[in-house]
Amino acid sequence: MRVALFITCLADQFYAEAGVAAVRLLRALGVEVDFPEGQTCCGQPAFNAGYWDEARPLAKRTLEVFEEAEYVVLPSGSCASMVKNHYPELLPGNREALAMAEKTYELSQFLVRVLGVEKLGEGLKGRKVAYHHGCHALRELGVREEPLLLLQNAGAEVLPWEAWEECCGFGGLFSVKLPEVSLAMADRKLATLPEAEVLTSTDAGCLLHLSGRMGKKGLGLRVAPLATLLWEAYAG
Amino acid sequence: MRAKAKLYPKEAARLLREKPGVREAVTGATLHFERNRLKAYAEVPIEEWRERAKAVKDHVLTHLDHYLELAERRLRENGVQVHWAETPEDAHRVLREVVHRRGVKRAVKAKSMLTEELGVNPLLESLGVEVYETDLGEYLIQLLGEPPSHIVGPAIHLSLGEIQKLFHARFGTPLDASPEALAQVARRVLREAFLSAELGLSGANFLVAETGTLALMENEGNIRLSTSLPKVHVAFVGIEKLLPRFADLALFLPLTARAATGQRLATFVSLIQGPAREGEEGPEEVHVVLVDHGRTALLHDLEAWETLRCLRCGACLNACPVYRQTGGHPYGYVYSGPIGAVLDPGLLGLEEAYPLPYASTLCGACYEACPVKIPIPRLLLTWRHRAAEEGLTPSWEHGAMRAFRKVMESPALYRLFSKGLRGLPLPQDLLPLLRAWTEGRGPLRPSPKPFHELWKEVADGR
């Protein structure tokens, strides 16, 4: 099996190690990994902000870059949803868009649903993990159980968190268009955060926003993308 | 009500800064409603209910002329006087006529968002009529001179302390009076109003076309009194509120109650079939004013008409993490929260309501809560797209998006940008965005090397 990794621009720039972890993990599970070099951004920021004319060419070039791929896997729920749910809206009648939607998965979703992997290893034994459900992973892709299953089966204690399904307030351009509201949302989320060793999620955007806010408030908690933790689950 | 939606970003920021208590009160109350809703949804095959409700509303909206005519006929057969109001002025005319003809000095009013939309209270006051809001929450905000902060809980933003202070100043109750004691005071005032008012005003949750029945839901009993004690009852009904058949109420009454407050049914449901007949007690005159006020235009908007399925249950407000931070006031119009963000541009025009479609992170909690499956996130995207197309968005933002596209269209430029992020100066267009980000979250710290460079190191295996 061959997977083309779509690393997404935010992970590329801010959580590069998550990409490395995804590559190592997929390879360890017997999957061949490509990284089509022409990839940049899926166009989501422009699309969500209403600039469809700016988003469309980016979607089209992403379709070209991944045309040959058997599967496209992303360590990001919201970019995966952009490809799966919004490319067909943005490019109505475009067959390639439908084809790409079919073969695109968020990483944990791919592991559980396509590879049928439910246990990676025991590398997270006894680790106290707080899991933030990224909104698009949760509500647009229906990724709810997969990350929890993989974390728990690797020995992690996923802590109960009252607000774990609530939006963290990132929302792309929202975070800079309405910064006060965005920060108030992060604060509400963090106010209910359990005493964990590590905070994780499928999405780099949420993590960037939450870790930035935690830094500002002097909360010293490790923040790691899910891909990184899943590799630790495997490699120990 | 005059719309101040354009001020949303500023007002939201100001409220968070100046009235942190609002955030606390609204978060507490909405989370309470939200938990109740989840429990109440879980008791029934909610997906089936939502699908059916959506189908019924879509049917009635796509055959609206037919059902409006049928409703008018049935209402008249029931002895109701029917009026059509395309604009608030048309609705005002009906009220003015009633006030003059019946010599109305005092009116009692049940909670209704449509009457807020139409500015009924200011009109009546200008005619010298004393108006009493009779829903307790609505009465509180009337005393304060504020608009509703929530579609269902208009005073959701107030704390007990604020209400105690208000009643102390107004009625001389002790500053530590219990909620029960405060309600007693309000009850005494309102009871007197019910008994002396010549005019009762209400909205309607539903109007059944088949039978000409007005259906009203409430928990306090005030709607029942407002619509039955005064000699004249005037109900304002948005034309989107129609249901085809009486039997549809069996779905819509429990669904709305579950969505709004997590109740299986509202404590009181009034089904009004016209004025009192011989030997019955009740109003001598019942008027129904069918109000358009932008709805027909929205119905003809092929990308946005689904908004009109809205039942005004407020479930999306309770579910919305953005709404929870500020309550409804910063949105600047009667309808706030996620539904306001898509309904207001439809009713007021996008130019008036421009910033509202951006009052969301597109998290989708509103869609999950909506009892009639209004695709609010999709509609937000539609309105944003139009805002960008029509040039309503700020120029720095458009500039930043153009720059973003240029960079992302070319892997070579993207790699250059990647280097820039690690040392070189950033394009001017991106600077305001960066500043807005770093203020609350500290500087951006990119990985030492981007993944596309690390790939070269991991590419060859291992």
Structure, described:
The complex is a heterodimer of chains A (236) and B (462). With 236 residues, chain A is an alpha/beta fold. Chain A is 53% helix and 12% strand. Chain A has helices at residues 9-14, 16-28, 44-48, 52-65, 77-90, 95-103, 107-114, 135-140, 145-153, 174-177, 179-191, 204-216, 226-235; strands spanning 2-5, 32-34, 71-74, 104-106, 128-132, 157-158, 198-201, 222-225. In chain A, the strands form two sheets. Chain A has a four-stranded parallel β-sheet, with helices on both faces. A four-stranded parallel β-sheet of chain A has the order 6-5-7-8, sandwiched between helices. The longest helix of chain A is centred in the N-terminal third of the chain and has 14 residues, at 52-65. With 462 residues, chain B is an alpha/beta fold. In chain B, strands 1-10-7-4-2-3 form a six-stranded parallel β-sheet, with helices on both faces. In chain B, helix 2 packs across helix 12. Helices cover 53% and strands 10% of the residues of chain B. The longest helix of chain B has 23 residues, at 20-42. Chains A and B meet through helix 1, helix 2, helix 3, helix 4 and helix 8 of A and helix 1, helix 15, helix 18, helix 19 and helix 20 of B.
**Spatial order of the strands forming the largest sheet of chain A:** 2-1-3-4
Query: In total, how many beta strands of chain B?
Result: 10
Radius of gyration of chain A: 17 Å
Low-confidence stretches of chain B: none
Number of helices of chain B: 23
Q: What is the tally of beta strands of chain A?
A: 8
SS element count, helices of chain A: 13
Q: What is the distance, rounded to the nearest whole angstrom, between the alpha carbons of the first and last residues of chain B?
A: 67 Å
Mean of all residue-level pLDDT scores of chain B: 96
Terminal CA distance of chain A: 25 Å
Strand order in space, largest sheet of chain B: 1-10-7-4-2-3
Which shape of chain B, going by the Cα principal axes? globular
Q: Which assembly state applies to the chains in this document?
A: heterodimer
The SS-based structural class of chain B is alpha/beta
Helix content of chain A: 40-55%
Poorly predicted ranges of chain A (pLDDT <50, ≥5 residues)?
none
Shape of chain A: globular
